[in-house]
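Think of the structure tokens as a kind of shorthand, similar to the way a musician reads notation: each symbol stands for something richer, in this case the local conformation of the backbone. In the example below we present two proteins back to back. Begin with the first one, reading the sequence and then the tokens, and try to describe in your own words what changes along the chain.
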Amino acid sequence: MLRFNASATLLSLWVTLGLSLAQSPSPGEPSISALIEDLANRDYRRREAALKQLESRSPDDLPALRRALESTTDAEVRRRLTGLVERLERAAVLAPKQLNIVVKDRPIQEVIREIARQTGYSIQYQGGGNQTVSLNRPRATFWEVMDDLNRLTGATMYHNEGQGLIVYDQDGYWPHTILHGPFRIVANNFSYHKNLQLGPVPKNPLHDHTRSESLTLTFQLFSEPKLPILGAGQPRLIEAIDEFGNSMKPVAAPHEVLYGGAVGGYRMFQTGSNVILNWPNKDAKIVKRLQIALPLTLLAEQKPLITVENILKAKDHKAAQGEVELVVHEVKELNNTQYHVRMTVRNLAANAAQDFNWMNSVHQRIELHDAQGNKYMPQGFNWENSNPGNVQATFMFGNNGRADLGPPARLVYLHWSLMQHTIEFQFRDLPLP
């Protein structure tokens, strides 16, 4: 029962701290069923105590809570359970992957393979070095381990659609980094500009704007592969203080602009943005505290909506489900390595004519599988005649040299559940230019 259209709230404490989702009740702690029964108790204090205890439980209890929600006929219990289930579902989405990496003088390739095994993420190492790594991380988040690798070896990564995470060697690391649940934020640079307009010069000295200066911090946000980013909004500067205690926050907010694909709506795993600051005291060389709020649109869940079986023989096949209809016009095979699927995909939702995000992301919602569920790599698409509610295109897939891929068996269209979330983070002791 994923409902992710509400405004973002603060993460639960155990998510913020990166604790494991596998927490179990302490001995003597009331059972889920007993607490749910107390939600309907005539004693107000019993009801409130039960709700408080349920709120402290982990997402492992979600199946029991969902079953209780489906079976209850008590309106008050249903109201309380609905809110609780939605909060736990949200927290489960925002919880980081947990790892246990304890190694001594092991090749970096081996460590990365172990990270991939524990997370289930597709991670490829494309470095050429023979570096060895020692890590003692028996209980760490994904980004804590990857940040350790970056500091120790310079290992850096990017995400390739179809291949997953690509790790490569780089002679450098990111010293100003914030790890926040499934997110990693790095400070890229400060940019300071001074400008003097030589002419024309205004005759009225009160209107002299020939001199100007600007200070901009650029940063990047990375998300775990389990939680793609669909867009980022205008960052909000909450606080900026130099080492002398002066505020560096502009009095008037700059003109709002959307950054990082907020209009694009396609699946990505990193986005860049910036904030503008004042520099009232040029003797200041450090920003002691800089706090930012960044609104994000996240892809909370992907699940099959339409499946076309026997895809190689699905000429003129039509299928519809929910608010989506697709027609497979033709499937072409090229040298047993590449397949072109010519299709029409229609968005039947009421707002389809204005939903450019859907149109821009259709190519990422379509997958080609073999009989075992292995995925072919997307290799692009060619638009034919498309608008926000109707996409006609040829989608291209390849086996990328994988010997384990069988012939294409099915085409899958994925339904996306979106979530709005605002992340707040704080840099400390950033050097000024």
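Once you have a description of the first chain, move to the second and do the same.
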Amino acid sequence: MFPRPVFTFAAVLSLGLAACTYRGDIDNPATIKATWFSYLNGDDIRETCVEGAAPRYRLVYNADYNEQIRSYEVTGDGAGGAGLTVRVQGRSGLNASRLTLSDPLGWARWTTSQTALDGAALDQLDTVLAQSGAFDAAPTGLRLFSKETYWISSLCKDGVFHFNAWRFPSARFDAITFDALLFEKDATEVAVRPPRAVTPGERSDARLPRNRQSGDETGSFFNLQVGENGLAGNLAL
């Protein structure tokens, strides 16, 4: 089971109260649980995004939080290139062989791959990010339901922090071009869960008590709302 976030579908707390600030070690299952919303908000990236800072990008693909999330982190190497770290977690990426006595939380860890990007590849990524509107103003007020498919980006480029989000289905989501490049560089060998629309019934089911008979009875549900340049907070269902 994918680790549950700090607050469940009944929680009504602001983002700042609900989650600790992410400062690293996302590979630790406990860190994921405690700092997921701060991680999505790119708090660690925006804190160090100053003039002269190397490029640092984080793009998260949420294909139903309880089923699959993918994280793509790009860190400039100071020589014109960058390192790409890809992480995948969710039911579709579970590996029972990770459960051992020496690492009882191994099943909950990310499947990870690392790839070097040369200057040309980094320039190409910048181009497709720009084409997708990643450096434009974020869609303030956009709501993101945990069962939906969406992308969230936190980008530090030329010392300026840019936050953005795309929800499926939408024209903005259809216009994304960075996904093909990231999936091409993804060496985790975990298949990408395709986008799918959430039905009104699925939103209603998320409000029911956890003893309901459905595949989501052990899942976590939450809404996020996009602000001017980050997450404005979480909303009750």
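Compare your description with these statements about the second chain. The beta strands are 56-63, 69-76, 82-89, 111-117, 143-145, 149-157, 160-167, 223-226, 231-235.
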